[in-house]
Amino acid sequence: MVASLAGCAGSSDDTTGASADGEKEPVTLTFYANPSDNGAAAKVVEGFEAEYDWIDVEIVEMPSGTDDRKTTLSTVFQAQDDSIDVCLIDCTWPDEFIGAGWLADMSDVYTDEELDEFIPSTMDICYGDDGGLYATPAYINVGVLVYRTDLLEKYGYDGPAETWDELIEQCNTIVAGEAAEGNDIAGYTSAWKEFEGLTCCALEFMWDYGAEFSDEDGNCTLDSAEAVEGLTAMKTLVDDGLVDAGIRSYVWTDSQAIFNSGGAVYMRDWPAAYQSAKDPENSSVSDSVGVAALPSGSDGTYTTNGGWYAAVSAYSSHPEEAKLFAKYLSGYDGMLAYATENGMLPARLDVYEDEALEGSAVAELLPIADTCKNRPSSAYYSEYSLIIQSSVTEILDGTTDVETGAAEMTEAIQQLMDEDGDS
User: Fold this and answer.
1) What is the model's pTM?
2) What is the tens place of the pLDDT at every residue in 102-118?
């Protein structure tokens, strides 16, 4: 059963345990899921209910906007309401939700061997200060480099750029060559509007050159030489005229429209954009599209984890059954359902080998899945992100130089960290 929040279900069924004759009494759980998932959540529920036939799961679809989803969950949790049993939470929320006491510890339903099946980098944000396990990845979402295979071949390149320096060189060559033929094309497009997408992209550039958000003492280090080098590479794309002219106002759908109409050589986006670019109904270049890991800097290549995690409400009336469902959601079958139905990337490497994914875009993205890196885990992440967006915008617009912008960004974040006790 699926409901929207407009007609949100009330509290979960309050029966649990076993009857006098030993039969398990029926239990109904409520699962707050993401909308527009192409039936993935329903398929997960179907598989779970077949295995645990005394448990029914009702799906409540959260709003489409990530911020609206957070508001929805926070409102219910703050009221200590039991109408949520299991929910999906964004990968930037665990620290805040754990600190507020809203999530239940799931350590008792996992063995160390089972936890080892997850991609290690996806698990860093799942634990509380007490060592408890409060979330597990349901699926991940990673940044990818989508590119025009025909243009790379035309200009004699064997494959996509593996470093940012190579990408800049290729783009300069191809843009100039196409301009000489009267074709107006950008070398690179992405979503660099002042929103969360810009934070993701900027962090990736800085990570690629060896920067970290903070040091071992918890002090912000985004003014390091490595961070400056990464932001300089990002700014070079602008200074060399290689980015699409509208990139500073784009969200993801805007950059996808440019690439799918043949307007760019390269695009940084998410896996769903690659699938869209390969679809002839959406793209005029569908037969000339490839995907690769993001280019590397001096320290390698890293991509932002944009995944969603399974969590159990601390106020659930059926915590044991809720933990069973959350574990199934983050298990092999749950991840496979999200991969086959909605193209979401599993957070377990073994799922990529399933025959149901053979030849799929998901299987093609396996090498990239293991490069994901988490954004800072903090109850104040939203504030940190706004500072990053504002500072990077000033750098890209040229209203401040890279070194000054990085220093001011770090100072503002550090001040917030000091005020809130994060450092």
Assistant:
1) 0.85
2) 999 999 999 999 999 99
